Amino acid sequence: MSTSIVPARPGMRVVSAVGWLLVAFAGAGALGVLALRRGENVSAAWLLVAALCTYAIGYRFYSAFLAARLFALDDARATPAERLNDGHDFVPTNRWIVFGHHFAAIAGPGPLVGPTLAAQFGYLPGVLWIVIGVVLGGAVQDMVILCASTRRDGKSLGQMAKEEIGPVAGFTALVAVLGIMVVLIAVLGLVVVNALKSSPWGTVTIGLTIPIAMIMGFYMRWLRPGRVLEASAIGLVLLVVALYAGRWVAEQPALAATFTLSGKTLAILIMVYGFAASVLPVWMLLAPRDYLSAFVKIGVVLALAIGILITLPPLQMPALTRFTDGTGPIFAGALFPFAFITIACGSISGFHALIASGTTPKLLERERDARLIGYGAMLMESFVAVMALIAACAITPGVYFAINAPAAALGPTAQTAATAIANWGFVVTPAELEQLARDVGESSLLSRTGGAPSLAVGMAHLFSRALGGSAAMALWYHFAIMFEALFILTTLDAGTRVGRFMLQDLGRHVWPAFGRTGWMPAVLISSAMIVAMWGHFLWQGVIDPLGGINSLWPLFGISNQLLAAVALCVATTVIIKMGKARHAWVTLLPLAWLVVVTMTAGATKLFSPQPKLGFLAQARALQAAQAAGTLPPGVKSAGDLAQMIANNYLDAAVAAFFLLSVIVILLDSAREWVAVVSGAKAARSTEVPFQPRVFAAGD
Amino acid sequence: MRALAEFVQRAACVVRRVIGAPDYDSYLAHVARRHPGCRPLSRDEFARDALARRYDRPGSRCC
Lengths: 699, 63
Prior knowledge:
The structure holds 2 protein chains of 2 kinds. Chain A is mainly alpha-helical. Chain A has helices spanning 10-36, 44-70, 80-83, 95-106, 110-118, 123-150, 157-165, 167-196, 200-223, 228-251, 253-258, 263-279, 286-311, 335-342, 351-356, 369-394, 397-404, 407-410, 414-423, 430-439, 452-466, 473-507, 520-543, 549-577, 585-607, 615-628, 638-677, and strands at residues 42-43, 314-315. In chain A, strands 1-2 form a two-stranded antiparallel sheet. Chain B is mainly α. Chain B has a domain at 22-55. Helix content of chain B is 65%, strand content 0%. The chains are: A mainly alpha, B mainly alpha. Chains A and B meet through α4, α8, α10, α13 and α15 of A and α1, α2 and α3 of B.
């Protein structure tokens, strides 16, 4: 089956071949400039050209290969949306609408935070992994899972794991997803805490988004039922009001003091919020926030793209920094494997497999739309990651490290921070740091770890250069913080609720009444349990003198890549059972890479003898301090010390659990592959048999 | 003027579906085409039903 519908004339074919060759040369040339130019600042334009050309080649050739040769996607075949059309879940939908919907569902804070943190290695490792990883890994995973699920009436990843591989893999996948959810929510919560800590402006603005959502919810439920767009318009206007209200509060000394909160207070508030969102009816808080955040998400991605295109900032960060050896202050660990787990979303993200086997396959109007939606939307997310990387590398390295390095590395004042940064070989003066904090309307930007504040500074630079000048810096900064927190909290509240359902589903095997999602005692208990689980990790991050991101982000990265490994195992099994074993390298290639990366990273986090890197080594070092009766630098009390020791053992146990899950699922899958390929088991595809497509128009 | 109103209607429909909001008009069209004679849900019932479906299953959220 050919990829183009109309056979091209020979003349056109030559033009097309020459055109694609030019694209390939442009991309390769831009990558060459990025890799080889030393000693002077490289323009972000090179990064954009390298990324866009690679995406174009990957989409035009590789995704066409997957569509035609691997799945033989066929527009004459009826999709589940057509066969099972119920007007609710299964609705044939125009592909560009599904593209937008799918993109809004997969894009979250992940592709913004990961590349920002990984910029400590320089821009080169990040850009190579984002661009190559997505074309050969992430986009392949999303597209293959989407196709597999579409051919199976929109079955979920868990169901497919159970049916294609076996019950052991299915159950392991289920528990692993819950574990990943917990770590993800905790680390995102920590990003918000660090962004709002001692920032009355940010705290008030974000706090106001809660009553704004409730006003929207009330409007959509009681005043004008189902009028989502009207409510969203009101919500967007109120968000701007909240932005200015935050500034007003920050300017009133008495009020500002009330809203200047510590990390611990913010962590408790976020836990209360997560619990409330899980228990309250969805129309009140969750749904309106979701709509608002979808608008803001798409708006900000567009704004960021325009800002970067207009200013084309030079990259201040070198291609490679000295921290590739593993001594970096933001997170410990060498370039390999830690660059590849720090950047997950943007290259390959296991979470997408849940979306690609959830709502999206039930909307596809034609089979071949899976190419644009599965492969294309992931390229778009990857582009968001590239833009985040540009924003992080466009601020001066000194400022970047001042914002992202933990207090234990920088010390308490701008003076000590400047000295520490000078020791790392980057230049920034205490006066510059203080001036920047004043410009963005904050008391200090030192050690605001988690990536959100430094991305906000980067965006404020870009936007104020394009629009408004330096006077608008503070507004742009808080606007960026507001949108980041808005969609992090949307992931956090919906995630808590989803986690609650998963917990209830697991628990009903032990206690049937616990599984009733409408029974208040079960709802309260399961919500409290899930909040306690992520709350524990969040709290651990808040009291950690190394800033928490240091230990939690790698754990999140490992877990997300584990889920991707599960998805690729399912995908490979599907491909082999489809009788396409000769094409199984398509998913085996990224799978092999991920297994090597997660295993190395997990084993390093567990067993490294360096206390900065290994959980067990750090626990032992802290225990030694405890036995000697001393407190390590940055630790405030003996109680905190005892908790840190326990936390390190817990982190080690979680990392071990993730590694074990990878091994179990991989072995279980390999057993199935060998059985099918050797002929011991018949290759029987579980696809729904072909039915011809009936009507042409969308519903 | 009519063309403008129609354009706004269509744009609103696209935006609603992209952000995952229930689209009552498409639902009415669906019922009329596929289940003629059936009484469709009211706008209010449809909105409630859509919310319950959207948030009662895992895997609807991402990093």
